[in-house]
Inverse folding.
């Protein structure tokens, strides 16, 4: 098994950073996370591995479930299995289109009114109380504005 090297080149820097951020949330110690947490990590990254795929990963790695995985080992081990996740280009294009649609004045920022419209009128419509909870959770900067990066983070929630 390859244990070092860069993440698969099929991912954009934004997607790799998102995967790394999720990996870091599962980090148990200075080394990394445990092999037993790989299924949860993969699901958090948007993949939906089957039990058979998880067993194959563990068997291929030849490691016990308490083995500590670094980021480099993790991405080398599962990187190609994340390919069924929506491509970064597709996801970025979809988010940018959605953001531009909601950015009424074209300033590259969504204001509170635009955010509330997004949350109340699209997809799974939220009640006003739920909207307030979402806005509190994501945190808005002082002038109640959200840029594209914050918007993506909110939707990845």
């Amino acid at each position: 098994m390859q244990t070092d090297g860069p993440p698969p080149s099929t991912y954009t820097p934004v997607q790799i950073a998102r995967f790394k951020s999720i990996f870091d949330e599962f980090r148990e110690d200075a080394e990394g996370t445990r092999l037993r947490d790989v299924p949860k990590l993969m699901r958090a990254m948007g993949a939906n591995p089957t039990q058979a795929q998880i067993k194959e990963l563990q068997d291929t790695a030849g490691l016990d479930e308490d083995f500590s995985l670094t980021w480099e080992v993790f991405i080398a081990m599962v990187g190609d299995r994340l390919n069924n996740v929506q491509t970064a280009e597709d996801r970025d294009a979809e988010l940018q289109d959605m953001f531009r649609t909601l950015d009424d004045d074209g300033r590259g920022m969504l204001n509170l009114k635009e955010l509330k419209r997004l949350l109340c009128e699209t997809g799974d419509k939220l009640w006003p109380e739920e909207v307030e909870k979402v806005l509190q959770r994501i945190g808005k900067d002082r002038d109640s504005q959200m840029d594209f990066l914050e918007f993506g983070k909110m939707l990845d929630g």
